[in-house]
Amino acid sequence: MYSPNISEEELKAKVKEDFFSSNPQNENIKLDKAQKAILKNLDSTQIIGRIDFCVSYDSKTLFQPINFLWAEAKKGNTNDIIESFIQLIFTIKKQNILADKPLFLGAFDCEKIAFIYYGEVADIIERQTDFNWNVTPSNHNTKEFKQLYTKTKELLESKKLQFRFKEDCKALQSFIQENFTLANTKLHKVQVEQTNFIHIYYRWLNEVAPSIDIQWHKWEKNFLNADFFLADLLSENNHTESIRENLRVLLQNNFYEARLATTQEQLEDFYYKFRFNDKQKAHTAFWNLYERPPKKEYWSFFTGRRDLLVPSNIRERKGEFFTPDIWVRKAQNYLEQALGKEFYEDYCIWDCAAGTGNLLKGLSINPAKIYASTLNPQDVADMQTSFSMQNHIFQFDFLNDNLFDKPCNTHKKGGLDSECQNCQKSKLPKSLQEILKDEAKCKKLIIFINPPYAEATTATTPAGTGENKAAVSTGNATYERYKDSMGKASNELFAQFFFRIYKEIPHCILAGFSTLKYVNSSNFIKFRETFQAKFLKGFIAPAFTFDNVNGNFPIGFLIWDLSQKE
Fold first, then answer.
1. Would residue 308 be called left, alpha or beta, if left means φ above 0 and alpha means ψ between -120 and 50 degrees?
2. In this structure, how many other beta carbons lie within 10 angstroms of the beta carbon of residue 380?
3. How many CB atoms are located within 10 Å of the residue 340 CB?
4. Is the predicted pLDDT of residue 468 greater than 60, yes or no?
5. DSSP for 337-403?
6. Which of 43, 148, 254, 505 has the fewest CB atoms inside 10 Å of its own CB, making it the most exposed?
7. CA 540, CA 328: separation in Å to the nearest integer?
8. 25-66: pLDDT as tens digits
9. CB of 560 within 8 A of CB of 509?
């Protein structure tokens, strides 16, 4: 935020005006009335001894000043902030100025400011008697300075609350508002709320995620770094035991416990442990800033909107885009218009690319008639906490997995043998398999989906905003099976979903969101030669209204009756 070239005195003046006065000079810093009311009573001009920067309550209204902060300031951005704290401690001890000790010690440079609650270092300052404090505090090369640095470095790193002036501006303002007040009786950390949790997650992604000893790309199908963030966020004293049922990853003191959900081939869950590669230093420093766990009323929001925490590069690669509620409601309304108001009684629905299930929310259809499947096991777990049709929610890779049970040659007549290693059991519930096998029942099945949009280049390349990525949509069974029939359309994931549905569930109603390429693109000529169905109803919406989609092109919701070839 501040130039590394300004002097220390100018830096102190700018920090004072921007964060400890009710009239900040920086136009990017906005204060509300409550913040101004608190800051107008702070005095950051008083200098105590040789301490660089002091913040106290206006002493004119009190018998004695109340000191909130004593801080060491350094110009530039290359200084070790722990060394600054050590220098400040030496300054305090040498001048014996603890009669009115502060609430916080601090250190800052042009990029960042850090606080340490005075009580955390009181023993060092007040009761460390067998030590020579009579050295020059600014000389970092003395034997005494190096001894104290070695002795206290780990403590100071684990207890400091550090903010960056630019990236953490609002969090810093909030911290000052909560703590630099006469009503303060304890340390108040930054509250995590719906309005700031995504910003906090991205900071966590940069500062904590690299310290976890895990190869993220190897576990992407099972859980993401967002799951580890949620384990952190919804924990108390580094334990998430109390909300185990909502999370796939738990924080257990100094390691994470990640659960692989039970499949039909497994009798019980598998657990993996992931530790920290830095002795948990980055994790501790980060969560010193924020109040954990947040208020309970936010928990369901945090776990229910995990999709907001999936990094954009992963969502682009997978083509995952959260469907806005306005289009979900309109799509449900269009189904009613196309199939009649009684469709809730007559039809079953399967979302085979369900994600966290938001397409299905608000449907008044009998839960026993709804099926939801998705590739990601964590999404399955999330849906199971949100919907009542527990047995109809399952993990299923639509582009690779079998729709039906496949008995081996030995058991073909007698049916599937669960103990036979050569028999292939489908992940689909028996009731759904029976619907797919029966033409009459299949005509009363709606495949209601917003499938992935990624293609063999990238999800955003068609709009001119992305880079080519090989093998996005070519490494699956559906591509291999139908690439010759689909032509160039086989590069598109959504087209693979539609084509497999058309070929293998040929009598159903297909109601899907997608780009309009399969209707009008020259690359889809061969696709259209095969895909013939009766168009019932639909609408188009601007692509940029969908999460993580850029560009001025339409996304359509089109309803097709696959039993009628047109």
1. alpha
2. 21
3. 12
4. no
5. HHH-TTHHHH-EEEETT-TT-GGGTT--S-GGGEEEEES-HHHHHHHHHH-S-GGGEEE--TTTS-S
6. 254
7. 12
8. 666 666 666 666 666 667 666 677 788 898 887 655 555 567
9. yes
For 277-319, write each residue's pLDDT tens digit: 999 988 998 888 888 888 888 887 787 667 667 655 555 445 4
Percent of the chain with pLDDT over 90: 39
Q: Which of 262, 261, 236, 235 is nearest to 248 (CA)?
A: 261
Q: How many CB atoms lie within 10 A of CB 440?
A: 8
Contact (Cβ atoms closer than 8 angstroms) between residue 281 and residue 157: yes
Over residues 470-490, the pLDDT tens digits come to 445 567 899 999 999 999 999
Q: What three-state secondary structure class fits 527?
A: helix
* Greater pLDDT, 98 or 502: 502
Region for residue 552 given its phi and psi (left: phi exceeds 0; alpha: psi -120 to 50; beta: otherwise): beta
pLDDT of residue 245: 65
All structural domains of the chain with their residue ranges: 8-179, 197-309, 325-401+444-561
State the chain's maximal CA–CA distance in angstroms.
95
The Cβ-side half-sphere exposure at 454, using a 13 Å CA radius, reads 24
Alpha carbon distance 241, 378 (integer Å): 18
Distance CA 124, CA 152 (A): 8
- Which residues, listed in sequence order, are joined to residue 534 by a DSSP beta bridge? 561
Residue 436 DSSP label: H
pLDDT at res. 412: 65
The b/e string for 533-558 (b: 16+ C-beta within 10 A; e otherwise) is beebebeebebeebebbeeeeebbbb
Q: Using the Cα atoms of residue 518, residue 523, residue 529 and residue 530 in order, give the sign of their dihedral.
A: negative
**Torsions phi, psi for 100 (to 5 deg):** -120, 65
pTM, 2 dp: 0.52
- Over the range 325-336, which residues count as b (16 or more CB within 10 Å of their CB) and which as e? eebbeebbebbe
Question: Residue 329 has what pLDDT?
Answer: 87
SS3 497: helix
- Given a contact cutoff of 8 angstroms between Cβ atoms, the answer to whether 430 and 493 are in contact is no
- Measured CA to CA, the distance from residue 327 to residue 329 in angstroms comes to 5
- Lowest mean pLDDT segment, chosen from 157-161, 263-267, 533-537, 557-561: 263-267
Domain 325-401+444-561, CATH 1.20.1250.20 — does that match?
no
Q: State the number of CA atoms in the 13 A half-sphere of 252 facing the CB.
A: 16
